[in-house]
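Might I ask for a little of your time on a matter of protein folding? The record follows directly beneath this note:
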Amino acid sequence: MNLVNTTIAKLSILPLLLFVAVFLGVGIYFESVGVDYAFYQVPAPIAIIPAIILAFCLHRGRVSEKVEVFVKGIGHSNIITMCLIYLLAGAFSTVASATGGVDAVVNAGLSLVSANFLLPGIFIISAIVATAMGTSMGTIGAIAPIALAVSTKAGIDLNIMAGAVISGAMFGDNLSIISDTTIAATRSQGCNMKDKFKENFNMSLIAAIITMVILFFFAPSPESIEVKDFNLILAIPYFFILLLAILGVNVFVVLFAGILIAGVIGMMGDYTFLAFTKDIYKGFSSMQEIFLLSLLIGGLSEFIREGGGLEYISKTIQSLTKIVSKWSEKIADQLGIALLVSITNLCVANNTVSIIIVGPIAKRLAASGEVSAKRSASVLDIFSCITQGLLPYGAQALLLGASFKIAPIEVVTSSYYCVTLFFVALSFIFLRKS
């Protein structure tokens, strides 16, 4: 980059920094003065508007060209896919809850699981579902209502329960062979999915075991649980989507089928078709904030990409790794890949998009340091998922925050798996040969 292009690249990052400053700054301020739901006082889709205006002002070209750039980012297939999952997840959650499915699952689970294992149990369930479905968002949409009810009944802190759910969801999102992140990582690095899975598994398993031990010590005492009578038939929609997920059925089919099954079972009782249709729309409406925010972040990230901001970040990361390369070029390049995808994820708040953006650069770094394709794919996927699971403005934290009625930052501070995986992954980079 010449001096002019470097300046433009630096300027293109400013809108993202402005959004983060507004979104987090306002929330932290209201939190400090004791306002309830501090991070919801200024809705995130509104907080991002100043950043979008700044991006329009900084980007060169006519207004019509700027609009095209913005719309291109909004229309990215990963962004649209995510938004559709929001809608279906919201509809399933609302219908299943209205028909009594949530209460049935909760009480059935409470009757089988000791209170001391509730938190590890929710983590395991979320991990299994996410690994089978290949999506953290779909998993959270299905598990969050159950986890919320369990937390309320068992007296478990909502922040910790939300952390258990997002931890399990990110475990599966990172490990699943049908996850978008896995597909993007393996294709960009040129390795087989099974090889990347094996490379990830040991790290993920160690982090998962440590996470379950941590969650075990946060579990409530057994006497805090009250189990009510339940109709197991009402829980069928959850068992049904779990079965479809394990069979590897597409996430859209899984959630759509879950909505239909929940509605049909409800209508076998006093649940009406009119109520069914209204609850579906109510579920759609409940996802309005994160739906809009995802679209707007997609448009903003396109301005950053076209302005050269991501390329500038990439070159900066590569220059930083030169210090470590004097000791070990292989370790330096793996750290470079990890830093590169993490910082990109901070900018675009989407782990799949981050992998797609930095994939080619990561492949060059891996080649220069003689890092195997399976290791570079693994590092890409792991650190993108770690970052995504710790972003207070990431889709997962926002969805859980909305579901649990807590601040997104409270969700990520209890994301023990992501924190644990960070240290485990670093240990593998420094101690294990690729």
Summary: The longest helix spans residues 3-32. The mean pLDDT is 80.
